[in-house]
Structures are given as C-alpha cells and as structure tokens.
Amino acid sequence: MRRLAAICGALLIACTTAAAPPAAHGFSNARSPWRFAFPRDHAAHPGFASEWWYYTGHLRAADGRRFGYELTFFRYGLRPGDPPPSPLQSRWRGNQVYPAHLALTDEVGRRFVYDERFAREALGMGHASTRRLDVAVNGWWLRGNGPFRMHALSNEVGLDLTQTAQKPPAIHGRDGVSLKAACATCASHYYSMTRLRTEGTLRYGGATLRVDGISWMDHEFGSDQLQADQAGWDWFSLQLDDRRELMDYRLRTKAGTLTPESSGSLIDPRGAVRYLARDAVSVDATGTWKSPHTGAVYPSGWRLQVPSAGLDVMLTPVLADQELANTVGGVSYWEGAVDVTDRASGRPLGVGYVELTGYAGAISL
C-alpha cells in the first residue's frame, strides 16, 4: 500500500515539474516588490505553483536526551483556479496536492527515523487555508498565527508542539524577492521565523516525553524557481547562543559551480536582517558521507565563515545518516541537525540544520 501511494504521488507531482513552465499555465511568479503582511502571509498562496512550510528544531527531554526534528508541509498546484467542470463531478477532483515529511534525529540512540504523508485536495484529506496558518495532510497539521501549533503522529514518532516567536519574521532577499537563477521570474517569496521557543510532547520509543527547545520555520512560495542547468542546493540555518541567526543557501549547477544568485541573511539579536551576497559567506566541506540507501555522496561537515560578522565556525552533523531516501515523488535528500562550534577554540556556539538536495539526482521546482 505504501509503495502504491508513492507511485501515485510521483505521477501527480510529475504533472507540476515535467510540464511547461508553471507561469505559462496561469500561475503567478515572484516579482519585486512584495510587501509581506502578517499574519496574512503565514497562510497559503494558491496563485503560486509551489509552497512549503518547513519546521526544524532542537528538543531536549527532562532526562537530558537531545533530539532534532523536521516537519514540512508542501503544497503543489496542478493548475491555477478552481477545478474545471466535469460531468462526473468526482469527489477526488482538486487542484492541489499535499506531501508532508516528518523526521527525528535521536542523538543518544544514534537513530534517524522518518515518515511521510500525501493527500489530494479532496475528501478532506488535505488543505491549506488562505486566511490563516491552517495546513493539514492526512491527520498531520499546523495551526495558529502565533503561537504556532503542530501535530504529527507516525508509527515511530509523535510530535505535539507549541512554538512562540522570539523575533519578528526575517524577510530574505531584496524587496521581498529571493532570487534563485538568472531569469527574471526564477525567484520566490521567502521568510523565516528564526527563533521559536518550543515546548510540548514527543512520543518516541514507547514513551511520551516532555520536551522544550528552539525551532526555526521557513515559509516559501513561487512558481518558476530553478533553471535546467541547476542541480540542487545546500541550505544552512544556524541559531547561535548570542541570539544571532544565519540563513545561507548555495545553489549548485550541474557543472559543479555556484550560481551568482546564492545568498543569505544574518539576523541580529533584535531581529534586524542583513542581506548577505554569495561571496559574503564562505562554506567549505570538511568530509563526505556515502548513503547506503541511495549511493549518493553528500558533503558531511563544514567550515562556514562570514568575515563581516566575525564568524568562523565548524558545523558537525549530529548523525552522518540523516537522509530522507526515496520520498513521495522519488526525491531523496539529506536534512539533518548539526552542532556549531568555534573553529579556533572548539567552544560550542549554537545549533543548526543543513539541507542538501540534488546529490541523489537533480531536483526541479
């Protein structure tokens, strides 16, 4: 049954990535200027072809055990507007599909587990409100405009968490637009909630644990983001103990170079955002890891420098194997918790998450 669901999901998502450019079918493209307004923009934007709400975080249980988590909800538009008239009037008709991913990194137990869901916009299985943050996929959900609440339960992991923002939304890019390639429409609207105080329960290993910690939320939407010569990206989010945060994405071409549109943001303790051009950040991999699941070779461990911010840090994966392999749609990627330490002294400086796509096959958006 799970295999059948994955095949069906791959076929549906292929409709959004293998056809003509989404804008040609009437979807909107990200254009400057875009003025974000909250809480409105926490909600869905079905005028754009793709959208995701992405949460990662670091949790600690009362017994001292530490966990990393990812919970991501995706929305893909099959076509803009309402479904076309049909003489059959099938209850399965709908213009949106919703995959979702859940992952947990168990530092002490040295385990990484993940699960996924998939739903069409039909029969109440999946939805994303345009009025408020209210996204659901087959019993997993996100709600609230602040505090945020989330619920996801799989065979091995259950999350029931509440997150309270410690800073305002951080808007990435310039004039509300985050460029992804050279073409004028290869862009998205992208913001983050970079410091969310988190508390709730984690169900894992046959027990229900009270946990607290810190989370990060990304929300991004667009229609025509990557070009054919781009293979994927390396994305970094750092939450430092001095209450600064860093986001940086490195867009890779199939030839192995970085695109000029790669960029980042530095958020100061008060929440002010500074744009970082590609060359303002230096990232060098210190090792590699070969997946036993897909055979892909990923970078593993990094030195990251932002000279203008006085940052020279090492990023060390909590576990080498944090790959979500062969998810719905056939995509495999590495998404994992990392520790951040000072390069010179080795002193702990914070925590982070890293996302690596395109190493197990080029990705398209």
UniProtKB/TrEMBL annotation:
Highest taxon of source: Bacteria
Database matches in Gene3D superfamilies: AttH-like domain
Keywords: Signal
Membrane-spanning residues: none
Signal sequence segment: 1-19
Domain (AttH) ranges: 51-223
InterPro entries: AttH-like_dom_sf, AttH_dom
Coiled coil (residue ranges): none
Protein name according to UniProt: Carotenoid 1,2-hydratase
